[in-house]
Write a structure and sequence with these properties.
heterodimer, A: 333 residues, Rossmann fold, 2 domains, six-stranded mixed β-sheet, four-stranded antiparallel β-sheet, 13 strands, 40% helix, B: 267 residues, mainly alpha, two-stranded antiparallel ribbon, globular
Chain lengths: 333, 267
């Protein structure tokens, strides 16, 4: 089967004005022709099959959104090629739009002052959905989440979670082949997060929709994705099964402690004490990335407790940022 | 089927507009205030001129013209520049770009519901009141048909100009100044604030060669003249139509070129 999305050596460069400092600088900027080229996406190739859920990760400003915008046809790559289901999105934007659904976690595509059901009816007409598939889709939604109470509520009266849920439903409404979800769980509480994950999973199963998910939340990735791609500074760092990455990082935990005294100085001391692990510090926490294959977290904590007065502690899964840092330091593959 | 998606945007616009009852009330009150000012201002102008007829218009001619111009303004003003500027600044324009529709028509039809609401809530009541109060100073004949045709074209010219100015926001990333400038220019040169008959020469002749007079002056001239020469009617409508085409082509081209800037250089 041919892949539904194909990216070949895609590069995207932006020209940005070099801004100067201060009032005088700002005045001179008015006439400046001093541009620098920023490479937001650097030679990325990827192919995605129909029905996959792929987690697209990377720190802020890594080029995730730019890649997505290129796949939706809003941006045109500087070089390289993209095909989405056989069409080139940035040359056939309207045609491509019919085949994709998009949710930006930060903004809503729904009509602010209208009840949700009116927004749905509008989308039905805009995407020219026939009556039968539309009704079937609503019935499917009803079977997955209880949308009945939401349908007659205007979007502005909804909570953030309800709105995100509605936006996701709206994106799937015209049964697109691909749905892009840009940080869909941002700012949501745990129960809403899990509700949304279940929903995405079920829709993907039911409709065999390809889902491309960008997120900072490793929980989303764990719950949904079989495959992940990690991008940083525009370059693809990793593109493989999540199992592969888990085998590599599964044993890592971040131990965070808070102590009395200067964290920076203490972090230095801990670093000397625990040469195997990476230690970092900020005002709030001293973080130690512990590899449990080498030493149990509880032992590390015991060891630290002897020399420091620990006020508070947290134990976290490894974060995306740390995964990326690790990949930089040691490499995977 | 194709028309259906546009009309359903109109329908949504109507529902949306009706949700904001208070804002409609405020608009009506604001207009009354504005018209009061206009009344006293022109009363003073006529009083100081010493004659009853200034530039071929009596006081009540002028007042009828201005009241209807205001009503027309409320009905036609789309705030496109605001909308576009805001969505360009906030980046929300991306949501319009990923709709399977031309963004130009999408924006127009999204707003079109307001035309319907505003027509019934501001223009029609004002028109009826003016008709009653002036005891038939406004002729009610074939001129109404010309007026309707003329208003449709005026709306299109107005939208094309707005869309053009809104597109400038892609370059400037600011709206306020541009919008104010546009509004002042359009309202003045279109004859919405001062009847064009009052303009001094050669300024008056120049405005007749600009597209703006086709927005307010043209439909109002057609409306207020009960027994026009057919050649005049023809001339006005043809001019409007020509401006429709010209502004459409220009604003489309400009948008196309500017969109490249978004897609090539990022928003």
């Amino acid at each position: 089967m041919a892949p539904i999305i194909e990216l070949k050596n895609v590069t995207k460069e932006f020209k940005v004005l070099n801004r100067r400092e201060g009032l005088k600088g700002s005045l001179r900027d008015l006439f400046s022709r001093d541009y620098k080229t920023v490479r937001a996406v650097d030679n990325i190739s990827m192919s995605i099959e129909q029905g996959e859920i792929i987690g697209y990760l990377g720190p802020n400003g890594a080029g995730k959104s730019t890649t997505i915008k290129m796949m939706t046809g809003v941006l045109e790559p500087t070089s390289g090629e993209i095909t989405v289901d056989g069409t080139v999105p940035y040359y056939n934007r309207a045609k491509n739009a019919q085949k994709i659904g998009v949710v930006f976690g930060q903004r809503s595509q729904l009509w602010w002052a209208l009840p949700l059901v009116e927004s749905f009816k509008l989308l039905k007409d805009i995407y020219m959905i026939e009556d039968k598939p539309y009704k079937d889709m609503l019935a499917l939604y009803q079977s997955l989440v209880d949308i009945e109470p939401l349908l007659h509520k205007t979007v502005r009266q909804m909570s953030l979670g309800q709105r995100t849920l509605s936006d996701i439903l709206a994106a799937f409404l015209h049964d697109p082949k691909i749905v892009f979800l840009d940080e869909p769980t941002i700012g949501l509480d745990v129960s809403m997060k899990s509700k949304i994950r279940t929903l995405i999973h079920a829709l993907n199963k039911e409709k065999n929709t390809t889902v491309i998910l960008t997120t900072h939340d490793m929980g989303d990735v764990d719950a949904l994705c079989r495959r992940i791609a990690i991008i940083d500074k525009g370059k693809m760092l990793y593109d493989n099964d999540i199992e592969h990455l888990k085998g590599f990082f599964g044993s890592y935990r971040t131990l965070k402690i808070r102590t009395d005294g200067d964290h920076k100085i203490q972090a230095e001391a801990i670093r000397a004490e625990l040469p195997d692990f990476s230690v970092s510090a900020d005002d709030e926490w001293i973080s130690v990335l512990v590899d449990e294959d080498r030493q149990k977290v509880i032992d590390v904590l015991g060891q630290l407790q002897k020399s420091y007065d620990i006020r508070d502690m947290q134990l976290n899964e490894i974060s995306t940022e740390e995964v990326i840092r690790k990949i930089y330091e040691e490499g995977v593959q | 089927m194709k028309l259906k998606k546009y009309l359903s945007l109109t329908r949504a616009g109507i529902i949306e507009q009706l949700q904001f009852r208070m804002s409609m009330l405020v608009i009506v009150l604001g207009n009354l205030l504005y018209l009061t000012v206009v009344y006293f201002l022109w009363k003073a102008i006529y009083a100081s001129s010493g004659t009853d007829v200034v530039n071929g218009m009596t006081f009540s001619d002028t007042l009828i013209y201005l009241v209807l111009a205001t009503a027309l303004f409320n009905f036609m003003e789309m705030y496109t520049v605001w909308q576009m500027g805001r969505s360009i600044q906030s980046g929300a324009i991306i949501l319009d770009l990923i709709k399977p529709m031309n963004p130009r028509s999408y924006l127009f039809w999204t707003y079109s519901g307001n035309f319907v609401v505003n027509f019934f809530s501001t223009f029609l009541p004002t028109f009826i009141v003016v008709c009653i109060v002036t005891h038939g100073a406004v002729p009610l004949g074939t001129n109404l048909a010309y007026f309707v045709v003329s208003v449709v074209m005026a709306i299109m010219i107005n939208y094309n100009i707005d869309f053009f100015v809104g597109t400038i926001c892609i370059y400037t990333e600011s709206i306020w100044g541009i919008n104010i400038m546009k509004q002042v220019i359009v309202l003045l040169l279109s004859g919405a604030t001062i009847p064009i008959a009052f303009f001094p020469e050669p300024f008056k002749s120049i405005t007749m060669y600009l597209p703006f007079q086709s927005i307010y002056n043209a439909p109002l001239t057609l409306l207020l003249n009960g027994s026009p020469e057919m050649s005049d009617v023809g001339r006005i409508l043809v001019t409007q139509f020509a401006w429709c085409v010209v502004t459409l082509v220009i604003s489309r081209l400009f948008w196309k070129v500017s969109l490249k800037r978004i897609t090539v250089n990022g928003g």
